């Protein structure tokens, strides 16, 4: 069945990139609507109060699926997991595991990295070295826990018998942005996470999308300079 789908988000990776990867990897036609970024966020300001475009909370991303608007990243993921049939193909326990992994990656990895990149803007006068070190230490702990859990869940073995799913895409994206921001400071990924990144079935799709539409991780002005500064402070 063909659906009419629009995913609306900023011209950044942020909260929506893994959703883009997933739809591309699964060959689901969709409109990838990207709101332009600028120093004054003028494009966003012009649409922010239009609830038909920004949803009930005046935020992005939003998904419009056959005319139905769904807001907030994790509810969008849950909606797609069901609407596109993934939930029906998994045992109930596995479907819950996908939700748990999505929540952990989103809250404890991608959002933490995004907050670090915005730290000097959100918290003027913050000790960026201390914030960066604390974020890196916490990220190492989170990834170690995820590594152990994926081993217990036999995640890699199960991926061979099912299509690429949303949790797979967010796992790859989380590892990719962590590598981009921290590089070797994060140290080599543990065996399971390393394989989840290097051998990901949709890696070529993800890399192609990144090349076609190069985007910053967040909408923070001068993000590249912020990343360079964080890296220098952590050396």
How does this model look, in words?
It is a single chain. With 235 residues, the chain is an alpha+beta fold. It folds into two domains: 5-86, Glutaredoxin, CATH 3.40.30; 90-234, Glutathione S-transferase Yfyf (Class Pi), Chain A, domain 2. It is built from 13 helices and four strands. It has helices spanning 17-25, 42-47, 51-54, 73-83, 86-89, 92-117, 119-122, 128-152, 155-159, 166-182, 191-198, 203-212, 223-234; strands at residues 5-10, 31-35, 62-65, 68-71. The protein has a four-stranded mixed beta sheet. A hairpin with a 2-residue loop joins strand 3 and strand 4. Helix 1 (17-25) packs across helix 10 (166-182) and helix 6 runs parallel beside helix 10. It is globular and about 50 Å long.
The CATH first-level class of the largest domain comes to: Mainly Alpha
What fold name goes in the CATH topology slot of the largest domain? Glutathione S-transferase Yfyf (Class Pi), Chain A, domain 2
Q: How many distinct domains?
A: 2
Structural class: alpha+beta
List keywords for this structure.
235 residues, alpha+beta, Glutaredoxin, Glutathione S-transferase Yfyf (Class Pi), Chain A, domain 2, 2 domains, 4-stranded mixed sheet, 13 helices, 4 strands, 8% strand
Question: Any chance you could write out the topology, listing elements then pairs?
Answer:
Layout (H helix, E strand, L loop, with lengths): L4 E6 L6 H9 L5 E5 L6 H6 L3 H4 L7 E4 L2 E4 L1 H11 L2 H4 L2 H26 L1 H4 L5 H25 L2 H5 L6 H17 L8 H8 L4 H10 L10 H12 L1
Parallel strand pairs: 1-2
Antiparallel strand pairs: 1-3, 3-4
Helix pairs in contact: 1-10, 6-8, 6-10
């Amino acid at each position: 069945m063909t659906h009419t789908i629009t995913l609306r988000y900023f011209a950044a990776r942020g909260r929506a990139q893994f959703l883009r990867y997933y739809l591309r990897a699964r060959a689901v036609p969709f409109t990838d609507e990207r709101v332009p970024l600028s120093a004054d966020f003028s494009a966003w300001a012009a649409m922010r109060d239009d609830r038909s475009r920004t949803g009930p909370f005046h935020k992005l991303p939003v998904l419009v699926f056959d005319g139905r608007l769904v807001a907030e990243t994790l509810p969008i993921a849950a909606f797609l997991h069901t609407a596109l049939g993934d939930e029906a193909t998994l045992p109930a326990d596995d479907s819950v595991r996908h939700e748990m992994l999505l929540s952990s990656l989103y809250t404890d990895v991608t959002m933490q990295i995004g907050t670090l990149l915005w730290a000097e803007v959100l918290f003027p006068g913050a000790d960026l070295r201390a914030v960066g070190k604390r974020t890196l230490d916490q990220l190492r702990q989170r990834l170690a826990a995820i590594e152990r859990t994926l081993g217990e869940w036999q995640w890699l073995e199960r991926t061979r018998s099912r299509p690429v799913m949303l949790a797979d895409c967010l796992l790859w994206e989380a590892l990719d942005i962590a590598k981009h921001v921290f590089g070797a400071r994060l140290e080599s990924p543990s065996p399971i996470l390393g394989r989840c990144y290097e051998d990901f079935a949709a890696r070529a799709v993800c890399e192609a999308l990144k090349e076609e539409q190069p985007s910053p991780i967040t909408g923070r002005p001068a993000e590249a300079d912020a990343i360079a500064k964080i890296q220098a402070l952590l050396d």
